[in-house]
Amino acid sequence: MADIEARTEVSGSVWKILAEVGQRVEAGDTIMLIESMKMEIPVTADAPGTLARILVAEKAPVTEGQLVAVLTA
């Protein structure tokens, strides 16, 4: 199985994690929301898979391009 990485597009903080480990997601599904400059930016799945790991917690700071979740195809 191939790993699919979910990365942030912006720096900010994790506002809300919407998916759970073990959950099946489709391409485009929102995994979590990042708050940046009072805006909510979604982190989405690039391809369908099962959420294997969430690497951040709610309220944690994140940087642009940071790996925040891993899915398996």
How would you write the strand order of the largest sheet?
1-8-6-3
Which architecture does the CATH hierarchy give at level 2?
Beta Barrel
Q: Care to count the β-strands?
A: 8
CATH superfamily: RNA polymerase II/Efflux pump adaptor protein, barrel-sandwich hybrid domain
> Under the CATH scheme, which class?
Mainly Beta
Low-confidence stretches: none
Task: Give the CA-based shape.
Answer: elongated
The radius of gyration is 11 Å
List the secondary-structure elements in sequence, H or E: EEEEEEEE
Helix content: under 10%
Beta-strand percent range: over 45%
How would you describe this structure to a colleague?
The chain has 73 residues and is mainly β. It has one domain (3-72): RNA polymerase II/Efflux pump adaptor protein, barrel-sandwich hybrid domain (OB fold (Dihydrolipoamide Acetyltransferase, E2P)), CATH 2.40.50. Helix content is 0%, strand content 55%. The chain has strands at 3-7, 12-17, 24-25, 30-36, 39-44, 49-54, 61-62, 67-72. The strands form two sheets. A four-stranded antiparallel beta sheet has the order 1-8-6-3, with no helix packed on it. The chain is elongated and about 35 Å long.
